[in-house]
Automatic annotation (TrEMBL):
NCBIfam families: hemE. It holds the Pfam family URO-D. The keyword Nucleus does not apply. It comes from Luteimonas salinilitoris. InterPro entries: UROD/MetE-like_sf, Uroporphyrinogen_deCO2ase_HemE, Uroporphyrinogen_deCOase. Its EC number is 4.1.1.37. Its main location: cytoplasm. Residues 23-32, 143-159 form the Uroporphyrinogen decarboxylase (URO-D) domain. This is Uroporphyrinogen decarboxylase. It catalyses: uroporphyrinogen III + 4 H(+) = coproporphyrinogen III + 4 CO2. It is found in: Cytoplasm.
Length: 357
């Protein structure tokens, strides 16, 4: 039993149906740029303590929605929950980002990995989804998410963030069968994870392929695209008007827009290095497009933000036969901790004002 949805802009846009205004949400909208987030984190102690507590995860998910009239909530969690539950043991070093105590570096370690149980090992994520759905009370839809098989593999093999992805690329070159085995188990886990979030109440789903763009086009077609396509084809998400839409976001995915439009996903998220006019033309109405304001525009003046938002909205329409249908406004990547919440308010207002039909 849950409340009927009061704001359907996101779901309608992902079905490429008409909307009164272009929907907007922002990657990493819940996070360190908000003083209330920093206050919650100070009390909770650590990122993981917050993410593993459904009440706190719910509170942080809702924080940006109290300030801005965003058209969707995204669950406060992380992509690294899956490898953590696989036994790699996630931890954070202040100022250095996520790390794993047990990275997987060879075929023997990969062979031991299995798909975690979603309602035991990842129960805290599903409980957070259920809690947020209850507290949202139908005001806006909730987006659930996962990392892509390739992006998860990057952290699992490197043992944390990386500048050159030397270890995983060496594995791709020297032991491609081992890497395919890792990508395969990751894909099974991502499908089970997204299905469980949907069952718990997520109304749209996004896959973050943050590091797909570090691959050459040929390597992307071997190590990322087939697994994204398998998720889009195999993830059960209902029929027609009731279908739970899937968005494939990728940083640096501009070379692959046609293939992503044919993947079976409902939406494709793009960064700011490709114009939305070109992206809309090349995807030809097969999918909705999400993006793609350069996040650094948030550092600009209110006037500059309004101008650049209009450029993105109008570029999409220009490539989509003059229509704004099928566009979800977002940044081309996530918010940064030093961004000004006042500027975010201007951005959200600019999207709604400029796109009003
Ligand atoms: O307070 C803190 O220090 C924690 C910082 C933080 C936050 C706020 C991390 C650690 N994760 C998150 C939340 C998060 N991560 C969300 C929440 C929902 C939202 O508001 O968008 C989401 C969707 C993610 C997804 C995520 N985690 C991605 C994919 C998206 C992206 O930004 O590219 C990646 C690559 C991660 C790994 C990760 N977790 C945290 C950090 C700082 C990082 C990036 C590390 C790196 O750059 O390699």
């Amino acid at each position: 039993m849950s409340a009927p949805l009061k704001n359907e802009r996101l779901l309608r846009a992902l079905r490429r149906e008409p909307v009164d205004r272009t929907p907007v949400w922002l990657m990493r909208q819940a996070g360190r740029y908000l003083p209330e987030y920093r206050e919650t984190r100070r009390k909770a102690g650590s990122f993981l303590a917050m993410a593993k507590n459904p009440e706190i995860a719910c509170e942080i998910t809702l924080q940006p929605l109290r300030r801005f009239p965003l058209d969707a909530a995204i669950l406060f969690s992380d992509i690294l929950t899956i490898p953590d539950a696989m036994g790699l043991a996630l931890y954070f070093v202040e100022g250095e980002g996520p790390k794993f105590r047990h990275p997987v570096r060879d075929a023997a370690a990969i062979a031991k990995l299995g798909v975690p149980d979603m309602e035991t090992e990842l129960r805290y994520v599903m409980d957070a989804v259920r809690t947020v759905r209850r507290e949202l009370d139908g005001n806006v839809p909730l987006i659930g998410f996962s990392g892509s098989p390739w992006t998860l593999a990057c952290y699992m093999v490197e043992g944390g963030g990386s500048k050159d992805f030397g270890r995983i690329k060496a594995m791709a070159l020297n032991e491609p069968q081992a890497l395919h085995a890792l990508l395969s188990v990751n894909t099974d886990a991502v499908i089970a994870y997204l299905a469980a979030q949907r069952a718990a109440g997520a109304q749209a789903l996004q896959v973050f392929d943050t590091w797909g763009g570090v691959l050459s086009p040929a390597m992307y077609r071997e190590f990322s695209l087939p697994y994204l396509t398998r998720i889009a084809r195999e993830l059960e998400r209902g029929d027609d008007a009731q279908r739970t839409p899937l968005i494939l976001f990728g940083k640096g995915n501009a070379a692959h827009l046609e293939a992503l439009a044919d993947s079976g996903a409902e939406g494709v998220g793009v960064d700011w290095l490709v114009g939305l006019e070109e992206a809309a033309r090349r995807t030809g109405g097969k999918v909705a497009l999400q993006g793609n304001l350069d996040p650094a525009v948030v550092y600009g003046s209110p006037e500059a933000i309004r101008r650049e938002v209009a450029v993105v909205l109008d570029a999409y329409a220009a490539g989509n036969g003059g229509s704004r249908e099928g566009h979800v406004f977002n940044l081309g990547h996530g918010m940064s901790p030093d961004m000004d919440p006042e500027h975010v308010a201007v951005l959200v207002d600019a999207v709604h004002t400029h796109s009003a039909r």
